[in-house]
Each structure stands twice: as C-alpha cells, then as structure tokens.
Amino acid sequence: MKTNYSFRYAANPNDVKSYDTEKLRSEFLIETLFTQDEVNLVYSMYDRLIVGGAMPVNEKVALETIPYLKSENFLDRREIGIVNVGGKGEVSVDGEIFELDKKEALYVGKGVKEVIFSSKDASNPALFYLNSAPAHEVFPTKKIGKENAIVIELGDQNNANKRILNKLIVNELVQTNQLQMGLTELLPGNIWNTMPAHTHSRRMEAYFYFDLQEGQTISHFMGETQQTRHIFMQNNQAVLSPEWSIHSGAGTSNYSFIWGMAGENLDYGDMDICAPNELK
Fold first, then answer.
1. Parallel, antiparallel, or unpaired: how do β-strands 203-210 and 237-241 relate?
2. Which end of the chain has fewer CB within 10 Å, C or N?
3. How far apart are CA 8 and CA 50, in angstroms?
4. What order of strands is seen across the sheet that includes strand 163-169?
5. Is the pTM of the predicted complex or chain greater than 0.85?
6. Strands 2-8 and 38-44
7. Would you say 198 is a known binding-site residue?
8. Which residues bind Zn(2+) (predicted)?
9. Ranges in the chain, pLDDT < 70
10. Is 69 helix (H, G, I), strand (E, B) or coil?
11. Does the CA dihedral 194-197-202-207 come out positive or negative?
12. pLDDT value at residue 152
C-alpha cells in the first residue's frame, strides 16, 4: 500500500479576489481522494484539518502518519471521522473491528495506534472518506449507523432544494474535541444545497460530493458573500471552505455530500446567514 499526501496553506480573502480558475482550483479543490489500495491525504492550514480517502481493494490499507504531523502514529494528537461511501467495509481500530455499510460513520479518538481499512468485496470496494482534526482529550471510538443518525428534512421542491440531512459525528451523538461531520442527500429533481448560504467565523468546513450521476457536474460556490467564486466539480471530489467563505452548490442532477467542520465551536447552528438575493 502507499500513502500520498500534500499540503495547503490558508489563503487571505483579499488575495482570492484575484485568483483565476486554475489558481482557485489548485488552492481549494481536492480532485483525487480514492486510488486503489492507497490512502490520499491533504493537510490544510484551515484549522489544520486533514481531508483524505482510503480505498482498499486487493489488500488492507493502514492510516499511517505523515511528516507534517511529526508523530509516531497518525492519531497521537488527532481525532478522525470516517464515512464509508462505497461497498461494505471494515475498520480495525487497535484490533477492534467495526463494519461500515455505505453512509455509515465511525469516530476514532486521540491516542489510537492502529487504524486499518479493508473491503468485504473487491468488486465493490469500500470508499472511506476521512476528516481529521487536532485533539487534546481522549474520547472513545464510536460507530454511527444509519439507525443512529439524527435525520432532518429540509428545503422544498419549489426551490429545488428538498434534501435529507443526516447528522453523524455531532455533539448530540458523539463526544469530540472539535470535529463535526454529517451527510446530506438531495432528493431526485433537486439540485441546490445549503441555501441560503452562510459562513462560519468560528470554524472552517470541507465539502465532499458523491453519488453524482456519470456525465453530470456540480458548481460549488465559495468566497465572501459579496465576492463569490465558483468551482466546477466531479463525483468523489472535495473542496476546502475557509471560515470567511460561503459553501453552497448546485448540480446538473441530484447528489449527496458530506460536510465536515473543525474549529472552536461545536454548535451546529452557529452560522452567519446571507439571504439569496444579497449574494454577489
């Protein structure tokens, strides 16, 4: 197996105003998360969140430390959230096995030495999407199955944003230091997510888009509310969202996405909303 890793600096919003398409994509878009029998990781300076993916096919793959961490084990000073977006898989956490079906999550706390990913069927491999943030307290590993999620219905058909929000790794369900994760599913015929748009001055966010039909695309909107930009994205890609940026999108078909947050506040409702007709 192989671990691939890269690094992203934080960007000043005044600088982002001058970015062309290529620069905007190189700073914020994460194009490749899943490669066979490998782990891909992006270390971001936005609250030091790591976004990654693991795709075990013919062999098990391990969560290995990377040079940026300067630690013997990946989770010596970190916590991690894992959501399976592929076939059935297993995660071994210091020898304890957790089975994850598609759209099920696992929280793993600080201090764990060994995390190993595997698929139940190589012809339909598991795809483990990963978010990791710095941690100072030790909290227990916990699986959040489909039956455990907090489910909220949002939006309406008239505004093309009828969707189901599944809170997975949130403080109502799981003790974490700062990591929060959930999964939103847009119903057929609906394309808009997270509208009205908002920013989080107390935390950053990452979006991961999946279950997008072949040949379709998603336009992810980012930037300050009066200086918005867009990035066209494909299936199984992620995007970093700074605390000063909106994070919203519209697809040419319906899709699902995972939102992950890190920062100083665990309150899901702590957001600064901008009305749709006030965006520029």
1. antiparallel
2. C
3. 10
4. 29-30, 237-241, 203-210, 256-263, 180-186, 163-169, 150-154
5. yes
6. parallel
7. yes
8. 198, 200, 205, 247
9. none
10. helix
11. positive
12. 96
Of 93, 95, 89, 43, which Cα lies nearest the Cα of 69? 43
Compute the distance between CA of residue 11 and CA of residue 16 in angstroms, rounded to an integer: 7
Strands 50-55 and 142-144: unpaired
State the Cα–Cα distance between residues 234 and 32, nearest whole angstrom.
10
The DSSP bridge pattern shows strands 218-224 and 150-154 to be: unpaired
Q: What was the pLDDT predicted at 71?
A: 98
Residue with tokens 């899901």: 268
Alpha carbon distance, N-terminus to C-terminus of the chain: 46
- Distance from C-alpha of 78 to C-alpha of 133, rounded to nearest angstrom: 6
Q: Which of 78, 80, 101, 79 is nearest to 89 (CA)?
A: 101
**CA distances to 70, 91, 184, 276 from 95, in Å:** 24, 9, 31, 49
Identity at 156, one-letter amino acid code: D
- Residue 143's DSSP bridge partners are 106
**What are the CA-CA distances from residue 273 to residues 75, 152, 153, 192, 248 (Å)?**
34, 19, 19, 16, 12
The pLDDT value recorded for residue 101 is 98
Rounded Cα distance, 97 and 119, in Å: 12
Does residue 205 have a known ligand-binding role? yes
Q: Is 68 helix (H, G, I), strand (E, B) or coil?
A: helix
Nearest to 132 by CA among 82, 86, 168, 166: 82
DSSP for 14-33 reads: HHHTT--HHHHHHHHEE---
Q: Is 81 helix (H, G, I), strand (E, B) or coil?
A: strand
Helices then strands, counting H and E runs in the chain, come out as: 2, 24
Q: Per the annotation, does 220 bind a ligand? A: no
Which strands form 192-193's sheet, in the order they lie side by side?
192-193, 248-251, 218-224, 227-233
Residue ranges and CATH numbers for the domains of the chain are 2-278 (2.60.120.10)
* 3-state secondary structure at position 38: strand
Check residue 190 and give its pLDDT. Answer: 95
